[in-house]
């Protein structure tokens, strides 16, 4: 939950990186940060038995969340925004936000321009405003805003994470839930893993898998495993065939999304492993979307790659929700593979 509360849009992942770096103390053999801000943690593998190969396994979970940069400060001190990542404007009405300036943070309110309901006409009410119509009010006069805020400052949605039944709900479980999972794997993995392990905490996923691209080139893995969330639309108003995954039915083993087709033998290997280890899993086909796995798979001359997906309700809203038992299943499956 701490991880979800931290703020970090693409290219501004510093707070998340610092937190993860602290958590990794004593858990890894080597730790470095590359020019794109990826945090790359290394654990040396055991020597492979005769006739077997010691692979270089790269895991990747992204630290960034969707958010905004200040695009323009208007003459009255209202901020206009550049979205970073795929927002649905319907999820953005009347939101508390935080603006991260060079001197500190400022509270703000995000809302679309236009007439409120008391004075709106039926046509106004039937329209969903475009992202460009949203602005941030800081409650300050224009001069005070200009003094403190600069174009390029980060704007994030406010929402404290909380426990709700079997679910954890927060603003940035995409993909901090996988960041947590990766940390948990490093905590629970006692002794050297079966293969050389590179656990990458990547940057700028939400604007096109940019961190994972450079990380895959420097790590040069022989096997890639992306860790990200996927849709769980097991909620009212949607047919069963469009659910993609279901909450609480296990970790998703991705077969397909529009950015990658998981390497077939790795899918088979992970399915067999899950069955042997008694870990709940579900096969996932996502018609649209992409993750770090695609960047790894397409790097250099190609890398066999799989993505493990956490079923998540309400993705890209402030109420992103994951099921605790699916998180546990993800950790268990990764440990079964790496130990
Ligand atoms: Zn993601």
Automatic annotation (TrEMBL):
InterPro entries listed in its UniProt record: Peptidase_M42 (IPR008007), Peptidase_M42_aminopept (IPR051464), Peptidase_M42_dom2 (IPR023367)
Catalytic residues (UniProt): 205
Co-factor remark: Binds 2 divalent metal cations per subunit.
Keywords: Aminopeptidase, Hydrolase, Metal-binding, Plasmid, Protease
The organism's place on the tree of life at top rank: Bacteria
Protein's GO biological process: proteolysis
GO molecular function, one term: metal ion binding
Cofactor entry: a divalent metal cation
Keyword Transferase: no
Sites where the protein binds Zn(2+) 2: 174, 206, 316
Leader sequence segment: none
Pfam families: Peptidase_M42
Residues the record lists as binding Zn(2+) 1: 62, 174, 228
Sequence similarity: Belongs to the peptidase M42 family.
Protein name according to UniProt: M42 family peptidase
Organism: Deinococcus psychrotolerans
């Amino acid at each position: 939950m701490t991880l979800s509360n931290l703020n970090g849009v693409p290219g501004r992942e510093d707070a998340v990186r610092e937190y993860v770096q602290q958590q990794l103390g004593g858990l890894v053999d080597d730790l470095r940060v590359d020019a794109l801000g990826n945090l790359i943690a290394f654990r040396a593998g055991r020597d492979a038995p005769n006739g077997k190969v010691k692979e270089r396994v790269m895991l990747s979970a992204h630290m960034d969340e969707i958010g905004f940069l200040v695009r323009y400060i208007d003459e009255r001190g209202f901020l206009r925004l550049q979205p970073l990542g795929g927002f649905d404007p319907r999820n953005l009405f009347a939101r508390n936000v935080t603006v991260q300036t060079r001197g500190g943070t400022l509270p703000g309110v995000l809302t679309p321009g236009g007439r409120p309901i008391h004075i709106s006409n039926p046509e106004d009410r039937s329209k969903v405003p475009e992202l460009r119509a949203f602005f941030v009010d800081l409650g300050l006069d224009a001069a005070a805003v200009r003094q403190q805020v600069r174009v390029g400052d980060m704007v994030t949605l406010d929402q404290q994470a909380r426990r709700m039944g079997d679910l954890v709900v927060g603003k940035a479980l995409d993909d901090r839930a996988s960041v947590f999972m990766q940390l948990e794997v490093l905590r629970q993995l006692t002794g050297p893993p079966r293969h050389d392990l590179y656990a990458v905490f990547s940057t700028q996923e939400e604007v096109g898998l940019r961190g994972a691209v450079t990380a895959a080139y420097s790590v040069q893995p022989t096997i890639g495993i992306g860790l990200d969330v996927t849709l769980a639309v097991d909620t009212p108003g949607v047919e069963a065939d469009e659910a993609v995954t279901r909450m609480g039915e296990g970790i998703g083993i991705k077969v397909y999304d529009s950015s990658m087709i998981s390497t077939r033998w790795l899918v088979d290997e992970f399915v067999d492993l899950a069955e042997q280890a008694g870990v709940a899993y579900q096969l996932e086909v996502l018609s649209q979307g992409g993750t770090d796995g695609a960047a790894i798979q397409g790097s250099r001359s190609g890398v066999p790659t799989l993505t493990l997906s956490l079923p998540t309700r309400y993705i890209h809203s402030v109420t992103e929700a994951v099921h605790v038992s699916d998180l546990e299943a993800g950790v268990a499956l990764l440990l079964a593979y790496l130990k």
